[in-house]
Amino acid sequence: MTNLMELVDIHKSFRMGTEEVQVLSGATLSIGAGEFVALIGASGSGKSTLLHIAGALEKPDSGSVLFQGRDILRCSFFERYRFRNQHVGFVFQLYHLLPELNVLENTLLPAMVAAPWYKALIRARPGKKLAVEMLTDMGLGARLRHRPNELSGGERQRAAIARALINRPSLLLADEPTGNLDPRTGQGIIDLLIRRRREQNCGMLLVTHDVNIAQLADRVVRLEDGKITPA
Ligand SMILES: Nc1ncnc2c1ncn2[C@@H]1O[C@H](COP(=O)(O)OP(=O)(O)O)[C@@H](O)[C@H]1O
Ligand SMILES: [Mg+2]
Question: Which ligand is nearest to the CA of 23?
Fold first, then answer.
């Protein structure tokens, strides 16, 4: 399997007042193209921090983050921005949908950002057909004009997944996407993620506490004492 992403010897600490907390101390992890890796670890072990570094939302103190062989830490601000927009999809525990936008608009946002400026100017909506198709496939066809606060948790997360996938990323980063849902709804979300991931052939790094969910992955790794070990 070719490597999609390699996190190599990642160190990261946070300063809280006078105290420094070392969160990652030599974490190394690679994800193959199309591979599904589950990441487990105690609360506070640094799972979210590692995901944010993988998605270029945060910079490590040292180490390298290679995406398709390129070090994204050495890229320009604009290139990193493009990497996030075009190659990575994020799914968060608390959805992070924009409350003022409806389901369709939330889903389209990354596509609009990626489009050339003149498309925004003439109000053409790039990706609209794909967004409607995806949302309909996810059971949200009757919810396109609803705002997030008019939706259930499961529906919000499905909209967030559609948003994560709209630009056809090659890497999905999902941070406890079922952490706020009841088990049955959560299982539906996982089934959806796994199916869409397979259809779009993208790699996925999924943080979960649930051993049943972790078992579905191609590989399970654990974050402990700032390092990655096979689980
Ligand atoms: N921006 C930040 N500033 C200070 N400390 C942080 C920050 N982000 C995370 N931390 C600390 O780093 C540790 C790991 O956090 P996190 O990556 O969220 O863990 P997990 O997702 O495994 O629960 C925690 O002790 C947390 O308080
Ligand atoms: Mg976390």
Answer: 1
Report the pLDDT value the prediction gives residue 114, as an integer from 0 to 100: 72
Q: At 1, is the pLDDT very low, low, confident or very high (cuts 50, 70, 90)? A: confident
The DSSP annotation for 189-217 comes to HHHHHHHHHHHHT-EEEEE-S-HHHHTTS
Residue 18's Cβ-count burial label (10 Å; 0-12, 13-18, 19+) is exposed
Mutational test site, ligand 1, from 7, 12, 13, 14, max ligand atoms within 8 Å of CB? 14
Q: For the chain, how many structural domains are there in total? A: 1
C-alpha 48 to ligand 1 mean position (Å): 7
Domain of residue 38, residue span: 3-230
Q: Kindly report the CATH number assigned to the domain that includes residue 24.
A: 3.40.50.300
| List of E strands, 33-132 | 36-40, 62-67, 70-71, 88-91
Pick from 176, 136, 125: nearest CA to 158: 136
What is the 8-class DSSP label of residue 46?
Answer: S
Measured torsion, CA atoms of residues 110, 114, 116, 117, in degrees rounded to the nearest 10: 50
